[in-house]
Amino acid sequence: MATPNAHPPLIRFGDYELDLESGMLRKNGMRIRCQEQPLQVLAALVENRGQLVTREDLRRRVWPRDTFVDFDHALNTAIKKIRAALNDDADAPRYIETVPRRGYRFIGTLTPAEAIVEPVVVVTPTRAPAPTPVRARETTAPEFGGFQEDRFHPGIVAVAGVLVLAIAGGYYFTEHRARASVRAPSGRVMIAVLPFENLTSDPKQEFFSDGMTEETITRLGRLNSKRIGVIARTSAMQYKNVAKSVQDIGRELHADYLVEGSVRREGNLVRVTAQLIHTADQSPEWTREFDFESPETLRVESDVAANIVSEVSTLFGEPSSSAHREFSEDAYDSRLRALAQTSIHTEQGLRLILANFEQATKDDANCAQPYSGLAHVYERGANLGFLPPNLAYAKAKEAAQKAIQLDPQLPETHVFMADALLTIDYDWKGAQAEIEKALALNSNDPMVHEWNSIFLGIQGKSEEALTEMSRAVELDPLNAERLATFGNLLFMAGRYKEAEANLIAAIQLDPASEQAHCVLQRLYEKEGRQTEAVAEMGTIFSLRGESDAIPAFNGVYQKSGYAPAMQFALKKNLEYLEGQSRSRYVSPLQFAAIYAHLGNKAQTLRWVEKAYDERDVGLPCLSKETEQFSLIKDEPRFQAILQKVRFPG
């Protein structure tokens, strides 16, 4: 990489400001949330303005050799997210120019920024005061300073809203996630466990520090969820290697307390420092140090997490959580490697994850967690289009059954079992029973509330579904996909103003969120805001790599109006899905919905029947979609499928 040009910490280009010290991007003073890796790539390009930055240069800077990642996919995704954040066009770039097969070049004009404008907060939840601790705080000065399981990424998101089935259909297709502003129950305190800092010079010890974070979150989640809520790992891990104040993190996570710590390991000597901090005044409630002379990673993590949970439970007058099932070092290492790769959503990445979980089951055949992980990944393979759902969900069900047999107290396994029972067997009662078990075991798990929201939404219980999703969001407030899905739920419930605010917030968190842009396009269409709807459609084309369709789409709109432009978009989407289906599994219901909107009854019926044969994950949503499939709703073949799905009542 060329020697970076000298730049002040804060620079401006166009309407954007990039703070190189904090890694923060703003547009017209409003913060645009972007993941760490895309921001690192943008910083590398900006620092070398006008010069070629090769793909290998970016690999060395952002993705070290020992990082488990599909580099080509990761870099392409990062560039796509940068372009979405900057509203840049790959074919007519203003900022990021592609040098084919070599790398990228920043071509924008840089101007020093003289001031930082405070970002606008789109949604600000109201939180009740924390309960008063039952004993006096006890602190000592710390000696040391202060895994993201990125659950399933969405697959293809529908253009013009043709793929969202019933109230829950949109997020059922995209693996059941969302976010929004919520109000915490009265008297409930929220705690976030920040990523433990790895103070060891060896980057391979990240497995150890991330495992400490995961174990602590898991154990805290078993406390009384009516009084103590625990922020999910997917939100907390976004603060890994991020320098922010306690108050800022508390405000962004809506957390009353933070657990933060560090790990230093030299040979068999391990020192872990942890403290609980009150975010309102940044004061520590307690600080502890733990010294070990043992190479056993599991014992260290288990002991430290147990001590932290004991301190928290005593502080708030709650009984401590039950013992956590342990398993062998080899199995634990294999599982951590699998979890470290859960943000990879390529076929190669899926194979790596499956291989590591399968290895963990061989390392310790009596441990439930690896089997639970397998159930999760098989579901992921189906939802991402790498595995046919009828085969993938059968394997997910088998793995979940094994996990429950080994440890029926593992909450998430019951969620995977519920999903499999509903998708494969259309066993509604069985699925409901598994959801209730998961809620009873750990109601601090956002995934459990989200799946319950899905189940309620499918049955038309929209207000209950919204309540459950809001609980999921409270526990995982920085998940862009949760926010987009909550926006979709609000839109389907007719609460357009709230929906728009949450969808825009989702795009701030992840500018490349197709789901958020798709629902926002539909919302603008519903409100008659055609110009904005057309702009969102153009963004969707761009995110799918079809920028060449934008001029033609805009031309149809300007010449013939909105309805013909949407017909054009539907046909382009059909072409896109047909192309995708040559290399990956595509939901038949996506084709069925498009053909229904195009008025083709024969093709609509054909694809709905194919969806049933392949156990498409969207079928349980079908009964509520009488309007979308009004073209075939009275057809005997369609009614026969509805009977086979066995909807409650």
Which descriptors would you attach to this protein?
649 residues, 6-stranded mixed sheet, 25 helices, disordered N terminus, 5-stranded antiparallel sheet, alpha+beta
Quick synopsis:
This protein is 50% helix and 10% strand. With 649 residues, the chain is an alpha+beta fold.
Task: Explain what this protein looks like in three dimensions.
The chain has helices spanning 36-47, 55-62, 71-86, 169-173, 206-220, 233-236, 246-253, 297-315, 329-340, 347-363, 368-383, 389-406, 411-425, 428-441, 446-458, 462-475, 480-492, 496-509, 514-526, 530-543, 549-560, 562-581, 588-598, 601-613, 636-645; strands at 10-13, 16-19, 24-27, 30-32, 53-54, 96-99, 103-106, 111-112, 189-193, 197-198, 228-230, 257-266, 269-278, 283-293. The radius of gyration is 25 Å and the shape is globular. The model is unreliable at 2-6 and 113-185 (pLDDT under 50). Helix content is 50%, strand content 10%. The protein starts with 9 loop residues before the first strand and ends with a helix. The strands form 3 sheets. Strands 9, 10, 11, 12, 13 and 14 form a 6-stranded mixed sheet that branches. Strands 4-3-2-1-8 form a 5-stranded antiparallel sheet. A 3-stranded antiparallel sheet has the order 5-7-6. The longest helix has 20 residues, at 562-581. Helix 10 (347-363) packs antiparallel against helix 11, helix 13 packs antiparallel against helix 14 (428-441) and helix 15 packs antiparallel against helix 16 (462-475). A hairpin with a 2-residue loop joins strand 3 (24-27) and strand 4 (30-32). It has 649 residues and is an alpha+beta fold. The chain has 25 helices and 14 strands.
